[in-house]
Amino acid sequence: MNSATVRNLLVRGMLAGLAAGVLALAVAYLLGEPYVDKAIGFEEAHSHEHEMEVVSRGVQSTAGLATGVLIYGVAFGGIAALAFCFALGRVGRFSPRATALLLSGCALLAVYVVPFLKYPANPPAVGNADTIGKRTTLYFLMMVLSVLLAIAATILGKRLAPRLGNWYATVVAVAAFVLVIGLAYAFLPVVNEVPAHFPASVLWRFRLSALAIQVTLWTGFGLAFGELAERVLNPRPARAAAPSAVTAGGS
Amino acid sequence: MAQHVAQPTATTPALPAKLPIGAIVPWAVFFGILMLVLLYFVGAEQGATSVVSGSDVHEWVHDARHLLGFPCH
């Protein structure tokens, strides 16, 4: 029964991740792609060597983008569902739906926002090809560190809760997380490979749209998975029916 | 079959039943690794390291890699 519950939640996590991936894909295509194109325009105007095109831009910006974003959604959906199985009933007095949304918010911060603040997303033309190994290592290191510290902070908060109460235990745990992340920011090497004269507005807009993709993905996942998890864990017809949306009035 | 289901009421949700760690771990190990392999192929293959030769994977997911925040090239 319990192993089957885990399997059901895992499958629903991957489906919710796929659905959230579709939303994130729309944001990526509509908000992000224009700046990828602008950055590639800059790259071509400032480079004398012409790369052979293995996959055309038209395919990269549609089918290629969809492949990457949807696999990312499914993969993180599965991982988040497994994390949800551990978190349920262990982090506090939260319903399955609330646990799912809380977990998604924390995942957005730990998996994306914290690494992003140190090593933000870069459009094409930003970044020296010779340092790709170093940059990849640093990015994944920051991601792993942030996730492990978030888990450690959660455990610390749970340990302190009986002594300090939920409020102060949470404050102390978050402060400890911020302090250690701050030290990591201070001691990990800086990466700044923005070429001279790269338009600042393109870089800023690209990074904002990269952030919007992740906010969409994790919010969508939290809401969708929370709904599905609630149905798996509380299969009761007695749940209050949601009032239908008021659509009266012109738009 | 509902012995582990929490009994929520409208005002005070009960603490949801924990899923036993032993039931989660096998799924977490197998699917956790599978999901990380998927993320590796989206995020890093044919960039810093290569399992498959060539650059087809890199070029195919190129835009996703940039927009999802991974270092691409």
TrEMBL record, chain B:
<dbReference type="Pfam" id="PF09489">
    <property type="entry name" value="CbtB"/>
</dbReference>
<dbReference type="InterPro" id="IPR012667">
    <property type="entry name" value="CbtB_put"/>
</dbReference>
<keyword id="KW-0812">Transmembrane</keyword>
<keyword id="KW-0472">Membrane</keyword>
<protein>
    <recommendedName>
        <fullName>Cobalt transporter</fullName>
    </recommendedName>
</protein>
<feature type="transmembrane region" description="Helical">
    <location>
        <begin position="20"/>
        <end position="42"/>
    </location>
</feature>
<keyword id="KW-1133">Transmembrane helix</keyword>
